Amino acid sequence: MSFIKDKLQLDVCIGLFSKTIDASFIEATGYAGMNFVIIDMEHGLASSAIIHDHARAAKIGGVASIVRVSGCDPHAISSALDSGADGVQIPNINTAEQAQAAVHAARFHPLGKRGVCRFVRAAKFGTLNRDVYFESDNNKLIVLQVEGVEGVKNINEILNVDGFDILFVGPYDLSQSVGIPGDITAPEVNELINNIAMAAARKGKTLGVFVDSVDMAKKYIEAGFKYIAYSVDVAIFADACSYVIRGINE
């Protein structure tokens, strides 16, 4: 079992989204004490080559690397895991069928239908024992994002799908889905998130969420969320720069 899975069984994990193409930021994230970094291919600039560099940097820095692919595409999911990343995150899951397709794309037989190539970085370019590779990669983290009204409507059916590890809530996309984009504290958004949380609790499924403030992070941790994605690396960097400027000018 991967170390991120081990930690999630015992404790809250804190990470961030990364949109940078500089692997130094990924490595530094680990040195700072983050537990995971989500390398973003949905809203970020990461290419397949950059994903490989980021996965290496994450291992050096001691932080788990999770690749958020752009959608429920089997090739994209398999390619992300071929990089040696510790897991994959799939956005916009609205139905049980989509959830099952995501799991199948991320797992080898008998758990799924992932394409096989033993000469990728995840298999140490063919030098890793075949059986060890198939077993270890079938333990990679799978995170499914529910971030729309349709997904919430089908939440119980999605949760009945076996094989994924974390149900991730996207408050901003939920706000968009109810017609109030960006208003993530609105009662309508909170109601949707509560519905997801209650359904997940009944199934014993680990919950994740995006937050962009410390207070928001604490709120969700108290509510039982364990996979906390705090903001985005470039935004954190911008905030740090602003903090320096304000401090000097005071």
Describe it.
The protein is an alpha/beta fold and 250 residues long. Helices cover 48% and strands 17% of the residues. It contains 12 helices and 8 strands. It has helices at residues 3-10, 23-31, 48-61, 74-82, 96-106, 130-137, 149-153, 155-159, 171-177, 187-203, 214-222, 233-249; strands at residues 13-18, 36-40, 64-68, 87-90, 141-146, 166-169, 206-211, 227-232. It has an 8-stranded parallel barrel with strand order 1-2-3-4-5-6-7-8, surrounded by 8 helices. Strand 2 (36-40), helix 3 (48-61) and strand 3 (64-68) form a beta-alpha-beta unit. It is globular, with a radius of gyration of 18 Å. The termini are far apart.
Report the mean per-residue pLDDT as an integer: 95
Overall shape: globular
What is the CA-CA span between the terminal residues? 50 Å
Percent of residues in helices: 40-55%
Based on the model shown, name its key terms.
17% strand; 12 helices; eight-stranded parallel barrel; alpha/beta; 250 residues
Blueprint of the fold:
Layout: H1 3-10, E1 13-18, H2 23-31, E2 36-40, H3 48-61, E3 64-68, H4 74-82, E4 87-90, H5 96-106, H6 130-137, E5 141-146, H7 149-153, H8 155-159, E6 166-169, H9 171-177, H10 187-203, E7 206-211, H11 214-222, E8 227-232, H12 233-249
Parallel strand pairs: 1-2, 1-8, 2-3, 3-4, 4-5, 5-6, 6-7, 7-8
Helix pairs in contact: 2-3, 4-5
Task: Provide a quick synopsis of the model.
The chain has 250 residues and is an alpha/beta fold.
